[in-house]
Amino acid sequence: MPVVLLVEHPDHALHGFPVPRLAAALAHSVLEVESVDDDAMRPRHFCRVVQEETHAPFTGFNRAKAAVLELAILVSRLGMLPRDKIEAEIAYLSIAIEKTVGEGEKQAWGWLMQRVGDHLSVQESHGDEVRG
User: Which residue of 40, 66, 100, 106 shows the fewest CB atoms closer than 10 Å?
Assistant: First the structure.
C-alpha cells in the first residue's frame, strides 16, 4: 500500500489554520467553500481559490509515467469496460513500460496491474463479461 506523507509548514497557514499538503506536491491551492448544493443524488461544493503556491517546477512525464497515469484511469473504469478493451489498452501501454520504466513506475504499474488482475479474476469466477 502506498504511503502518503502530508506536511504542515508553519508559514503555510490561512487565517490561523494550517494548510496540510502532500510532501511531494509541486504546487497547492487553498480553496474556500462559498456554497453547497446538498442534492441527494449529486451534492456539489462551489469553491474559490484563496491562495496558491508553487513548490517545484513540473518537468513533464516520460513514456512510462504517462502509461502509469493512463493505467490508473483505466483501473478507475474497470467496471464499465469489456475485457477485450481492458486487455488491448494494457497491451498498448505495456510497450512504454517495457522500454522506459524506472523503479517508481514499475512499483505503481505492479499495484495497478494487481487491481486489474483482481477485477478480471472476479469476472471469471462469476462468468460475467463487463459490458461497455
Answer: 40
